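Standup notes
- DV: blocked on the single-chain target, sequence here:
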Amino acid sequence: MKYTADGDLRKFDVHCSILFTDLPLLQRPAAAKAAGFEAVEFWWPFGENPVPGDKEVDEFVTAVSDAGVQLIGLNFIDLVPAARGLVSVPGREAEFRDNIEVTVGIAERLGCRSLNALYGNRIAGVDPRVQDELALENLRLAARAAARIDAQVVLEALNSIESPDYPIVSAAHAVRAIDEVGEPNLRFLCDLYHLARMGEDLFDVIATYADRIGHVQLADAPARSRPGTGTLDFEALFAALDTAGYDGWIGLEYLDPDNDWSWIA
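- DV (later): unblocked, structure below
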């Protein structure tokens, strides 16, 4: 699993918001480096605050840079509502748009070129069409802001088992929304775990949307555990990604209290 079909080292990054959780968040990049990884990614690291103070931002930037790892991915604010983001939430446009500028600023300082925009849950009593129109506008603004630093915005499908109010639960729906926005740097985050929980044919998804995939994340199904503990055939999936021409980073976004990396060997 460690090497591609061409014999190159496969590029795995550690998702430090879900791994190394026995450590304070700012210590996790250094832990990832000590474990042999060169790159990390994070959910939004400042809780429900869309515009953290300079001191908080500086501490985060310093933790990543001092660890000597590359920041591969960063979420826009995601802990609201119910940890699924603000992209489609009416009445909170100003929070999300202020957050765009902060997130892009952090990405610029750390050389991060992939920003994840969670679509947001359906809100009771709000017309879904209103939410979708707002989402398209906000995604367009986020993509244009990211383009200033030559970065991409990625949109992912989640699974409805764990996220029953999240409307984008298939690869096709995610790509359709991306096409509606129409920005060239808005791309598909192919999260193999969420797609598997929805019963999608992962090999068909990879082949069909090969030219739309901006980032890949993984966890084994059905328990969101490390590879080799569930039902997914990662050797075959990595081969499919190689065939599709994907040569980007693969984010390790799974639950593992032991931080066991033996599956990579």
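- Follow-up: DSSP finds eight helices and eight strands in the chain.
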